[in-house]
Design goal:
By secondary structure, the protein is of the alpha/beta class. The chain has helices at residues 2-16, 41-53, 129-163; strands spanning 33-37, 57-59, 67-83, 89-103, 114-123.
Length: 164
Amino acid sequence: MVIRIGLLFAALLLSSCGYHLRGAYALPSDLKKVYVTGGTPQLHEQFKQIMKASSGQLLTSPEGASIVVKISNEDFRRRALSLSSRGKSNEFELLYHLEYELTNSKNTALTELLPLEIKREYFNDQQDIIAKDNEEAVIRKEMYEQAVRSIVNRARVVLEAKAK
């Protein structure tokens, strides 16, 4: 009985402090149904995960969407920042660039074409090549997630300004 009361009390404390699961967003009702056109499958997957975690929905067609995200000029680059005495890369920079436009389901522009650029650097240990390849994959995934969060935040601001 005491354990149940303790668990209930902990659950009440967590829910009252604004705790949300990682990746969850409190989306306004105008942003619950989103359609994304263009972009890579990795970017679409991140959109799907964030919308699902936030009780939203990523639609497969623009019909019924409250907002349409049009992705263009998406580019991922990797360049060496420093070299070892043997000529191997010690440090890399990852650069993710895309441009996007927000429209409604009737194709009326809500924003002009907006650029988004994310940079990350990481050290490349020549003794642990496999782990560094995995690290780069994790960093790329985080960059896609950051891009989606930035786009969703911009969409939220645009929709709130439109409602006023």
